[in-house]
Amino acid sequence: xxxxxxxxxxxxxxxxxxxxxxxxxxxxxxxxxxxxxxxxxxxxxxxxxxxxxxxxxxxxxxxxxxxxxxxxxxxxxxxxxxxxxxxxxxxxxxxxxxxxxxxxxxxxxxxxxxxxxxxxxxxxxxxxxxxxxxxxxxxxxxxxxxxxxxxxxxxxxxxxxxxxxxxxxxxxxxxxxxxxxxxxxxxxxxxxxxxxxxxxxxxxxxxxxxxxxxxxxxxxxxxxxxxxxxxxxxxxxxxxxxxxxxxxxxxxxxxxxxxxxxxxxxxxxxxxxxxxxxxxxxxxxxxxxxxxxxxxxxxxxxxxxxxxxxxxxxxxxxxxxxxxxxxxxxxxxxxxxxxxxxxxxxxxxxxxxxxxxx
Length: 358
Known about the structure:
This protein is α/β, with parallel strands linked by helices. It has 14 helices and 13 strands. It has one domain (3-293, 300-355): Rossmann fold. Helix content is 45%, strand content 15%.
């Protein structure tokens, strides 16, 4: 049976706790798991900004959400006591590189300290059978080569965000080796995914939300580094990897424990300029301005993942190429801009993704 289809059958009736459910990835995953029949518990800070995908979906009415901060261990423990989850998917994070320069302490406190608190709660839980701990492709010491990083490559980070994700990986590995590997009928794994795009992302300093805000206001899209290269993937790609990985943690934990990369095909590696041009094409109007910044903060120009391990051992692979990813992403915002309900668009994209050939 095809890996993703088989994986989605593992969640019906399960109690799943998602940290960071109000975020971009978390809101997509919360809806997907709810529609798969899971009883979803969410724990996160309230959504940021004047609009959020979480609120657009009306997730408050579909899942058991509690406002909370992963930096508060007592609050995290209280949430675990309430939810008594069988599955924990840890997504809560400070996810922005540029914000990490403005507030490095918040970044380390959230991404490292918050991760420790979740791991502590899992360590003391008598209900959790599977832990999926998300970090980032930026956990690798980036030498900006064309060769994709494999799971055994050196960890590191120039900026506070990247360093926090590398540190979170080390903390996860320590807990896994010290406490989890010897636990009966239990599996824990970390997942590393790269740049994701898709409808419903409204975060600051991310290329697609910045484009949509400018286009909706009739203003030019202003970009800093049009030649910077990224391995772009739709948000459903890593989320499908998370689902497949978590299903393996439930069913064959010895095979699935450890760290895993989830990234796009090499054909999805494009420049920021390519993304903006494609966005303008699918939106149907707009213009772009390049605005270089003097003394700009360091941001990686090239970072690729090697996902051979996930392909071979989990039978996971991407489904949407770069043109499809851009078309679906811009189409989500365009349809929502014209009045279509966000939950209907989101569910339709999940359906199309499931029907696509991997």
